[in-house]
Design a protein that fits this description.
Layout (H helix, E strand, L loop, with lengths): L1 H22 L1 H6 L4 E15 L2 E17 L2 E12 L9 E14 L6 E15 L3 E3 L2 E3 L2 E15 L4 E13 L9 E14 L1
Antiparallel strand pairs: 1-2, 1-10, 2-3, 3-4, 4-5, 5-8, 6-7, 8-9, 9-10
Length: 195
């Protein structure tokens, strides 16, 4: 069910961005490549309970469409994994599916572009142990919120380097205390621009 919801949301964002870009002459003049796809490697510092942090690794796929003077929408699907949460021997896999607005500032005649974003969606964690009133659960889902930004460096008209991306990702998975996790996700990757 969660994967179907993520697929529907991603498809909706892509269709909306494509249709808005196709209808806006100003947007076509602002950028020759209104749609881009980014692949990133991510490292995430997370917490099992308050002040007990651990690291996860993984990657993400982002689809971003610009429709008016740097304003656009982005869908981000990220997968993370750790084999050992704080030497407990317990592993965890997590997939977040978020979408929302992104603003990109690209100075004239510059290879650099800076962006900021505010995304919302869902987090699904599995292959782990979550506390529950009936014992323990192997998986859980929650709302996810992602705030952050980054910098792209153009390498060619169609390819850019995602030099850095940093996001605060908040999830609300069960942890027997506050049921809140504040994650710091740092990534880098490659951006492919599509007409």
């Amino acid at each position: 069910m969660h994967s179907k919801l993520s697929s529907v949301l991603l498809s909706g964002v892509i269709m909306m961005a494509t249709s808005v870009v196709a209808q806006s002459p100003a947007a076509r003049q602002a950028t020759a490549y209104p749609l881009d796809v980014t692949l990133t490697y991510n490292a995430t510092q997370s917490n099992a309970v308050t002040s007990n942090s651990f690291w996860m690794q993984g990657g993400s796929v982002q689809v971003h469409g610009t429709f008016y003077r740097g304003l656009g929408v982005v869908a981000d699907i990220a997968g993370m994994h750790t084999a050992n949460i704080r030497t407990s021997g317990v592993s965890m896999d997590m997939v977040t599916s978020t979408f929302g607005p992104r603003y990109t500032w690209h100075p004239a005649h510059s290879r650099y572009a800076l962006f900021g974003q505010a995304l919302g969606g869902e987090a699904n964690a599995f292959n782990t142990v979550f506390p529950a009133s009936t014992g323990a659960l192997a998986s859980a889902s929650s709302l996810a919120m992602q705030l952050g930004g980054g910098m792209n460096i153009s390498l060619s008209p169609r390819i850019a380097l995602r030099a850095v991306e940093a996001n605060w990702v908040r999830t609300q998975l069960p942890n027997s205390t506050t049921n809140v996790q504040n994650n710091l996700r740092i990534g880098a990757g490659i951006v492919v621009r599509i007409r």
